[in-house]
Amino acid sequence: MLLSKERLSLDTMNRFVQLSRPVVVIMGVLFLFAAAFIAVGNDVSYHLRDLLIAVPAVIAFVIGGNSINDYSDRETDRISHPNRPIPSGRITPTTALRIGTVSLTVSAAFSFMLPNVTATCIVIAACVFIVMYELYLKKRGFLGNITIGVLTGMVLLLGGAIVSDVQKCYVVAMMIFLISLGQEIISDIEDLTGDIDRNTLPKRFGIQNTRYVATAFLTIAALLSVFPILSGSTNALYMSIIIADLLIFTAICSIYVKPKKFQTLVISAMFMTVLSFLLGSVAV
User: Fold this and answer.
1) In the Cβ-directed half-sphere of 231, how many Cα atoms lie within 13 Å?
2) Is residue 211 a part of any domain in this protein?
3) Per-residue confidence band for 111, with pLDDT thresholds at 50, 70 and 90
4) Domain total for the chain?
């Protein structure tokens, strides 16, 4: 009897953890702190209080966005992602919607505790964008892809805004936006059979042409990595960006050769990109 209760408790925890997408939550928090360090270097220690206030705002936003996304996609996920909590019957659609609504409200509430108007506006705008995405932009296919890319890049802008130096985060935010955009476009290929109500690029132009579009955005992201070197705004440690670029180009190759490895490679490329910018900001 005790063992059965333990299993029930574990399953209850796992379904809510799965709903929140823990990898995305971790990515959001790490990107937030990394961006702050990229902006002000070792002086980031003076902004720890504000960053710690931003953490629940980011976590709540990610949980809220993913919960509402699962609610919105509950029918198509029966085909594309049957193991997710809603189509598998482990969480009801109403519960997911309530979690999403409350989480986004919490995120917006925390934004008003942030140190400046820019940081607050970034969080509020993100909450508005994710709702617009679910209600309207997602069905527009490419516009939806752009929205998710923008939201991913906005986490880095938020980190810069909290320490009052957004400008130094522009290049890394743009790179992450382009990588995320490429990722979303390829995800539309992977979800093609289930996306019955979305006007996605693979539906409009075919799988192969969509691969070319994703390749273009990922290639531009890699090319942007040269900009900090040309501007002389980084140290020698930034050369680790070569690893990030190699991961990007390996992810591009996987699109055509081993598609199942693409998501792992592209996420690794995002982490390595941010890490390289962070290392490039270290005082040596």
Assistant:
1) 11
2) yes
3) very high
4) 1
